[in-house]
TrEMBL record:
Keywords associated with the record: Aminoacyl-tRNA synthetase, ATP-binding, Ligase, Nucleotide-binding, Protein biosynthesis
Protein name, per record: Isoleucine--tRNA ligase, mitochondrial
Domain Aminoacyl-tRNA synthetase class Ia: 76-714
One matching Pfam family: tRNA-synt_1
Transport recorded as keyword: no
InterPro entries per the UniProt record, alphabetical: aa-tRNA-synth_I_CS, aa-tRNA-synth_Ia, Anticodon_Ile_BEm, Ile-tRNA-ligase, Ile-tRNA-ligase_type1, Ile-tRNA_ligase, M/V/L/I-tRNA-synth_anticd-bd, Rossmann-like_a/b/a_fold
Gene Ontology molecular function: aminoacyl-tRNA deacylase activity; ATP binding; isoleucine-tRNA ligase activity; tRNA binding
Family to which the UniProt record says this protein belongs: Belongs to the class-I aminoacyl-tRNA synthetase family.
Keyword Magnesium carried by entry: no
GO cellular component: mitochondrion
Main location, first listed in the record: mitochondrion
GO term, biological process aspect, one: isoleucyl-tRNA aminoacylation
């Protein structure tokens, strides 16, 4: 019954109901209120009070909503925009392909949802979008995973390359299916029916064409040189495939190399210190953290501008080392006595030395090198050009060729120098290194060993094991010849955050070569043939073109087949009698695979993008991709284009997901949370069980975070999501409920802006400000700022506007202007929120749109989604600066009124604010008085009181009870606010004290009830 509802804690006008009114000082008022509640309200007015009513639920039935609307917001919306939005405004977000190797994690959700929000906003702006999801399918992890999954280890050795490729392909396909299912469940849209996969035949052919173009440009070459090598995976690695362990422990070693003819040093010692060392060996003291490379030593490097000295050690004899390092070395090896000093490093390059482990040592050179510093070691650097990048480059200048006696498993092989056969078959990082140290000790060449030296060291990012540097014959891309052009193209690229520019520029500038060959079966082959006698590579435009055409005919797997007759792979121009070839077994680096993905966009949209700033509008991936996909895309595109452009206009970078303790989420730490657990099940964070938040909650969680930094998966972040999502649902529910609250009236059209009341117009001004700020935030991809702006506006509406209009909505004449004005404002709020929130929580807005009548959406039912309706632009007429300024003053007055009402409430004078009237007193003719006069008709509604009067003197206030008097200064004038007793009686229908007699409803309610009765009779 209506009476029981009114006497509950529910409020018609937004304040608590009449319970708790009675106080000793105001029994009469309390008695009147109670009498009305218990007697007069027994009359049934429930059919005439238009309380909100809607089928839109408080809480979403997540599974049901997903089943009902997921296809609408994804496939249907994507198809609609593709068919209906103009092609000339095409926006392309190119997908950096995730690796098709494992189940999805929260990081995937962050990546995919950010991309989806970007393209959905563009659709809201009326732009057609292209988003083709992709997957990176080749490479070592997949190959190893399928081999490890085989129960019979002996069978692994028997598998052919084609059999391995078949298993790897199936694994990649299965993983893609699972990942795609998850991606789609998150409400992401795209061309899911035709994604790109780096293992697709058309993709592989385009990749080979890029390789051919780079060969023709002179960028590709083969060289025997040191590369990073994974002993576990038996393949070369590029720099982008490394991660550095800061706490790695190596065996740091001091080694002595005897000068071949140290006569000048002996004489210098005699001159400076008078010590006779004739006949005593003089040693160059080196320090290394890779003593296993000592057998491959071919030179010693010194800094030509650094000063060196000759010292004497009781334990290690006569040594040469850098002056700045003497004190540190003495701490390590014991006291050192200086015999001669001030020897320029350049002077040492006149000497030669002998290798302590070679049976026929010969003489080796000392070379000048700028990379030698006084930061560590002895100032003399042992150089093994087969096992060090800087060593290799230095030795190349002096005609010293690299060599490596280490095989693909990281073991010494049979090519070791004479006398070192004991090393064969031993691991360089384990027993082989121990053997080297023993041999050095036996040769009296070992001066010191620190087996626990801690420093940063490169690891294979997949096997998580330390790598070595090993010289092998590999294919390289000459980054040095294209990096200036690549870096220059970045000048016109927008980076977010801006630090990404420096990272990508720095990583690109630091590279000179890119090792693009890998020793695996699962990948795109480097299409090289080798002379079976000389080993020389055949890699010309003619040969590559012929091989690509053959692959197009017979499939890429055919290249990996064991064949005796290779004639069909050899271009006719090279089929000389008696000359035979073998196929190369190297495959391309997976970064080369994914780095050529721009060819898909070029093939599909190249003609449309010729006049554009770049081929693609946005690339967005994790912060590690400055060394990976961003860079490989930039290098391959730059190497094959002369337009001076980068392949992308904007590069966005998002951080990693961290747990509540700030640790990066990883399987090894056991702190990974699957997105499915967050959306559909109770999940645990920091030992606390959390309720599932659904797809909309997951998306809102991603949006509320500043993705340009690492993102914390914490209890607090999910609580904020639950709170925000609940408020958004209640806002939609409140709006929709008021459009279905009465059977007597169907809202058909908006009230014109000029006819709206000032309170309604002020709400629209807030929407205007919201739309402008949100659009700017979306333009900067700042989704967290969008969420913040919406949350702020929701809070303002809930605490103010929605409270102010309840009386109008619930009790005013159903077709009267005041109620229609409020409904008009609510309709605008709905459209704006549906517009602003659709890129972020499309399931929520689609559900609300489904429940909304056409009068709310402003569109016919043919407009099936907010995305079809497009962005809701706030009209410029809403930008009412005078209204904003006036309400800035009125809000201060309302604060004073509320303070007075609180005093009256605490004294027992009133229960709700409707039990009071307010008198405002200002000086006649003042700006403050004029402000109050202008809004006089709306002040009672704004203050949520039954009456509001504007007077010029407090003397005019009637002698009825009054309290809570406040004083403030507005527009330079004093204003007094006084809480007074209402002059009339409380209406049992609307609760305003506006009835003429205690036993009747007020005149407005009487007319409304009468009109409803007439409508009901019809």
């Amino acid at each position: 019954m209506l009476a029981s509802w009114l006497c509950s804690s529910v409020s018609v006008a937004g304040a608590p109901a009449v319970k708790g009114l009675v106080s000793s000082g105001h029994r009469a008022i309390a008695a009147r209120s109670t009498a009305i509640c218990t007697k007069r309200w027994s009359h049934d007015y429930s059919d005439t009070v238009m309380l909100p009513s809607t089928e839109f639920p408080d809480r979403t039935a997540a599974k049901k909503v997903q089943e009902q609307f997921l296809d609408v917001i994804s496939d249907q919306v994507y198809k609609w925009q593709k068919d209906n939005l103009p092609e000339d405004g095409l926006f392309i977000l190119h997908d950096g392909p995730p690796y098709a190797n494992a189940d999805v994690h929260v990081g995937h959700a962050v990546n995919r949802i950010i991309k989806d929000m970007i393209i959905r906003y563009q659709v809201m702006q009326g732009r057609r979008v292209s988003y083709i999801p992709g997957w990176d399918c080749h490479g070592l992890p997949i190959e190893l995973k399928v081999l490890e999954s085989l129960e019979d280890s002996t069978k692994v050795q028997q598998l052919t390359a084609i059999e391995i490729r078949k298993l790897a392909r199936q694994h990649a396909e299965n993983t893609i299916s699972k990942q795609m299912r998850s991606f789609k469940e998150w409400g992401t849209m795209g061309e899911w029916e035709s994604p790109y996969k780096t293992m697709n035949p058309d993709y592989e052919i385009r990749q080979l064409e890029v390789f051919r173009s780079m060969v023709n440009a002179g960028v590709i070459y083969r060289r025997f040189r040191p590369v990073y090598w994974s002993c576990q995976s038996h393949t070369a690695l590029a720099e982008a495939e490394l991660e550095y362990a800061p706490e790695h422990r190596s065996t740091a070693t001091y080694v002595k190399f005897a000068f071949h003819t140290p006569d000048e040093l002996v004489s210098l010692v005699q001159e400076q210190s008078g010590v006779d060392i004739v006949g005593k060996p003089v040693h160059a003291l080196i320090w290394t953290t890779t003593p296993w490379t000592i057998p491959a030593n071919k030179a010693i490097a010194v800094n030509p501008e650094m000063m060196y000295q000759v010292v004497s050690s009781d334990l290690h004899g006569v040594l040469v080392l850098a002056e700045p390092r003497a004190e540190y070395v003495a701490d390590e090896l014991g006291p050192l006595r200086v015999l001669a000093k001030g020897i320029p490093g350049l002077a040492l390059t006149r000497f030669c030395y002998s290798h302590p482990l070679h049976s026929n040592p010969g003489t080796l050179p000392i070379l000048a090198a700028d990379f030698v510093t006084s930061d560590a070691g002895t100032g003399l650097v042992h150089c093994a050009p087969g096992h060090g990048m800087e060593d290799y480059l230095l030795c190349q200048k002096h005609g010293i060729q690299p060599s490596s006696s280490v095989n693909e498993y990281g073991e010494y092989d049979a090519t070791v120098s004479a006398g070192l056969e004991v090393l064969i078959g031993k691991s360089v990082l384990k027993d082989g290194q121990s053997t080297v140290l023993r041999l050095l000790s036996e040769a009296d060449a070992l001066a010191g060993v620190n087996s626990g030296y801690k420093h940063k060291y490169p690891y294979d990012w997949r096997s998580k094991k330390p790598v070595i540097i090993r010289a092998t014959a590999q294919w390289f891309a000459d980054v040095g010849s294209i990096k200036d052009k690549a870096v220059s193209s970045l000048d016109s690229v927008h980076f977010l955050p801006e630090a990404g520019r420096h990272r990508l520029t720095s990583f690109t500038r630091e590279r000179t070569e890119w090792c693009i060959s890998r020793q695996r079966a699962w990948g795109v082959p480097i299409p090289a043939l080798y002379d079976s006698k000389t080993g020389d590579a055949l890699l010309t435009d003619t040969s590559i073109t012929y091989i690509i055409n053959q692959i197009n005919k017979v499939g890429i797997d055919a290249w990996f087949a064991e064949e005796e007759d290779l004639t069909h792979w050899v271009a006719p121009e090279y089929r000389e009698e008696g000359k035979t070839y073998i196929k190369g077994k190297d495959t391309m680096d997976v970064w080369f695979d994914s780095g050529t993905s721009w060819t898909l966009i070029q093939e599909k949209y190249g003609s449309l993008r010729e006049t554009q700033k770049s081929l693609v509008d946005v690339y967005i991936e994790g912060s590690d991709q400055h060394r990976g996909w961003f860079q490989s895309s930039l290098l391959t595109y730059t190497a094959t284009h002369r337009n001076g452009k980068a392949p992308f206009s904007t590069v966005l970078t998002h951080g990693f997901t961290l747990d509540g303790k700030g640790r990066k989420m990883s399987k090894s730490l056991g702190n990974v949370i699957a997105p499915g657990a967050i959306t559909w099940q109770k999940f645990k964070i920091d030992k606390l069980m959390m309720q599932p938040i659904g797809v909309s909650g997951l998306r809102l969680w991603v949006a509320q975070n500043d993705y340009t930094t690492d993102i914390s998966v914490s209890v607090e972040s999910f609580k904020r999501v639950q709170d925000s999502l609940s408020k958004l649902r209640r806002t939609f529910k409140y709006i929709l409920g008021n459009f279905k609250s009465t059977p007597y009236f169907t809202y058909e059209s908006d009230v014109e802006y000029e006819e709206l009341g000032p309170i309604d117009r002020y709400a629209l001004y807030g929407l205007y400000e919201l739309e402008k700020s949100v659009k700017a935030h979306y333009g900067r991809f700042a989704f967290n700022r969008v969420v913040q702006a919406v949350n702020k506006n929701v809070a303002e509406l809930s605490s103010s506007y929605f409270q102010l209009i309840k009386s109008r909505l619930y009790t005013d004449h159903p077709s009267g202007l005041s109620r229609r004005a409020a409904l008009t404002a609510l309709a605008h709020i709905f459209r704006m929120y549906a517009s602003i929130l659709s890129p972020i929580v499309p399931l929520l807005t689609q559900e609300a749109w489904h429940h909304a009548p056409c009068s709310v959406t402003g569109h016919s039912k043919d407009v099936f989604s907010p995305f079809v309706a497009g962005w809701y632009k706030a009209p410029e007429e809403w930008n009412n600066e005078k209204l904003r300024a006036d309400f800035s003053q009125l809000s201060q007055i309302r604060d004073a009124v509320n303070d007075g009402l609180e005093i009256a409430r605490k004294s027992g004078s009133i229960g709700t604010s409707l039990d009071a009237g307010v008198v405002l007193v200002a000086e006649p003719g003042s700006d403050a008085f004029e402000l109050l006069e202008n809004y006089k008709a709306h002040l009672a509604e704004y203050f949520v009181t039954s009456e509001a009067s504007v007077l010029s003197s407090t003397d005019s206030i009637a002698p009825t009870w009054h309290c809570g008097r406040q004083e403030l200064t507005i527009l330079g004038s004093k204003i007094h606010t006084v809480i007074v007793s209402p002059s009339r009686h409380k209406c049992p229908r609307c609760w305003h004290w506006s009835a003429q007699t205690e036993s009747e409803i007020c005149r407005d309610c009487e007319e409304t009830v009468k009109a409803m009765g007439e409508l009901n009779a019809i």
